[in-house]
Design goal:
four-stranded antiparallel sheet; 8 helices; alpha+beta
């Protein structure tokens, strides 16, 4: 039984929920946000041509303030205004500089940080993880406010619209996290070919209850299958709706 997660039986039917070995990457869908990640070993998020995080932040800063020279002046002003001696490490100082740059970027973009936990598998989130050794910031997900206005059909970003956009970005990250964790499923629905089974039992002089699972497998006929259900709540992810309400109370 390939990648079996759970098996349910009802009458002469058998429903098997299995792992989807070839799920569609949700970053290939029509997403609101763009996910830019940097990692030495993993190819994460959306394709991009930035060599390092500074290049990405400078690009958004440049789009925000209008030209390259002005963006460079902002970076210098911010870097000079933050006292390096107040920070124990260059990394902490650099984060303080980046935070100031992102505050400017937020005038034209909605942007959220992305954190990765790499421990017996990988998981991604917009919130930091509690384990500092195996986790850290890996990038950002963002969308321009102009794009949000276009999608939402408004002229200005109100608090309500902003909350909606942030919610969409967070949902995209959650869906991508499910994909990275391998929690994507499919189902196969079978029925038992009763006529063939009865003929076999009669010829072999066997009782049905004496059949092994392997023997019973010979009489299963696949009648339906579907793939691409994200998450292990089979009601919430739509699997139950696809397989039919006759399985309500069984799953």
């Amino acid at each position: 039984m390939e990648n079996l997660v759970k098996e349910y039986k009802k009458g002469h039917k058998i429903l098997r929920i299995v792992y989807d070995d070839n799920p569609e990457n949700p970053r290939d869908w029509d997403n609101l946000g763009t996910m830019v990640c940097f990692h030495r070993r993993y190819n994460l998020g959306d394709p991009h041509n930035y060599r390092e995080p500074d290049d990405f932040l400078f690009d958004l800063l440049e789009q925000t303030v209008g030209d390259t020279d002005k963006a460079e002046r902002f970076v210098k002003k911010i870097s000079d205004s933050i006292n390096r001696e107040l920070y124990r490490s260059y990394g902490a100082y650099k984060k303080a500089v980046d935070d100031e740059i992102i505050d400017i970027i937020r005038k034209k973009f909605i942007i959220l940080p992305l954190y990765l936990l790499d421990h017996s598998g990988i998981t991604i989130s917009t919130s930091p993880f509690s384990c500092p050794w195996d986790s850290g910031q890996v990038g950002w997900i963002y969308v321009s406010k102009d794009d949000v206005c276009g999608v939402y059909g408004v002229k200005h970003i109100t608090p309500t619209v902003k909350r909606w956009a942030i919610g969409v970005l967070e949902a995209e990250v959650e869906e991508y996290d499910i994909y990275l964790r391998g929690e994507v499923y499919g189902y196969k629905l079978y029925h038992i070919d009763e006529a063939k089974l009865e003929a076999y039992l009669k010829a072999a002089g066997l009782e049905r209850e004496n059949l092994s699972d392997r023997e019973l497998e010979l009489f299963l006929v696949e009648e339906d299958s579907c793939w691409g259900f994200f998450g292990d709540d089979f009601r919430a992810n739509g699997l139950l709706e696809y397989v039919g309400r006759e399985w309500e109370g069984v799953i």
